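Margin note from the TA: students keep mixing up input and output lines. Inputs are the sequences; the output is the structure of the whole complex. Example:
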Amino acid sequence: MIYCKLFLTFLKIGLFNFGGGYAMISFLQNEVVYKQAWLSTAEFTDIVAISQVTPGPVGINLATYTGYAASGSVCGAVAATLAVCLPSFVLLVLAGKYVFATRTNYPAVWRALRLVVIGLIASAALTLCNAENFIDYKSVLLCVVAFWAVWKLKCGPIWILVMSGFLGILLY
Amino acid sequence: MRDLAKLFFIFAKIGLFTLGGGYAMLPLMERELVGNYLSHEDFLDITAVAQSAPGIMAINVAILTGYRLKGLTGAAFAACGAALPSFVIILCVALFFRKFAENPIVVRVFKGIRPAVVALIMVPVFTLAKSAGVTWKTVWICAVVALAVWLLKMSPVYVVILAVWVGILCDRKERTQ
């Protein structure tokens, strides 16, 4: 049953992702692209791009779209979206006060999680560096220019994706 | 009932009008909530807790605000409100994209977009490393995590569990000393 599997997968992600939208990408790669092989790397990369440029929380966009693409139906999208929100819902309603207390009582846990999240985001980027996304030297160049534009010129993701899409039409 | 509907629509508005999610949503949330529904201290409190919990931060803020104002049903209404607009929009995009994915222009657009997505994900690695104060002494932890997940396909779930466990051990040790 793909809906049950989707629900359980996203429940796990909702429970263990402490790093926001970007870190969630590495969870999704591991579960959805690698373990279950519901999507190819290129398909998944397109989902990440679209999730960045549509309004609302990126995590919801990622869960909804991945759920839909993996199952091919709206039920899959519903299952994934509900499941990714459920763990924090239960946790915050039952123990909201204690959640924050752990931050002051266990500072090393939060220091460790911050480092881990950086590693997870790095692995998300590295996993996307494959032959599906980098088809020739032009894509490498595009990546370098986009990196420079975000890093140095502080361009927003929407601007970057619109421009690179436009360059895609010109170059390919 | 009217209050619940209001909660739903406030968060639907927040969900609908913010691009980029997470921290980009905080200013709009503050404008909508502080003064009318929450004190400034309450809002700071709620965002701090929302960031300490797993899951999606914007949804966590909605859950906590809804819960504080109207209990369990309030939390459910607020969370649904925050999630619903992006759920509907992204589903429409997905349906649309499915139809046009084979279109030659769309294929070319995405050939250009894919390498740029990689760049978009690389930048926060460096900005976060800066803001988290990563030094040469701690950078190996990030590197080991990245390699284990990237090359060995280790599940990020285990990485997070390991980090929490090691963190708790360190804190215990500090306390006994």
